Amino acid sequence: MSSVDLVLQKALVQVLRASGLVLGTAPVPLYTYVPSKAVAPYVVLDQVSTVPTTGSRACNHWESVFQLTVITSFGVADQVTDAPTLEILGQLLAALDGVYLPLTDDFQMHPVQVAQTRKASRFNQNSVEVLRYITLKMKVYQDK
Description:
Layout: H1 4-19, E1 22-23, E2 26-27, E3 30-31, E4 42-53, E5 59-75, H2 83-96, E6 107-109, E7 113-123, E8 127-143
Parallel strand pairs: 3-4
Antiparallel strand pairs: 1-2, 4-5, 5-8, 6-8, 7-8
Protein name: DUF3168 domain-containing protein
Organism: Hymenobacter mellowenesis
Pfam family, one: Tail_completion_gp17
């Protein structure tokens, strides 16, 4: 039996890669671990937490929280804007909000809920990164 975390991560990756994230005409890569040579824009999928919950005696129940981070980058002298992160955010929401993921190993779920989105930025000598965080909540169950 696979862990609920692994099953959810694989399903999220499958759905997001199939959705064909793009910015303009350029593909936007999805990573679970960002390679050292990655160039923005890209999306990072992180698992935040999974906790067992109570439910019917016939099933095991979990609540899982994952975070997607959209990262875009601008040169210090360039005009910085939210537009690219918002464009990618719209695609992520269309691909996931209210969707039932294709789970394996007899796991079942309620639809994905987008619990929160928020913005941040990071500065260094050469660039400004604009980030958009998307928190996803999922309720999963499996017959005992």
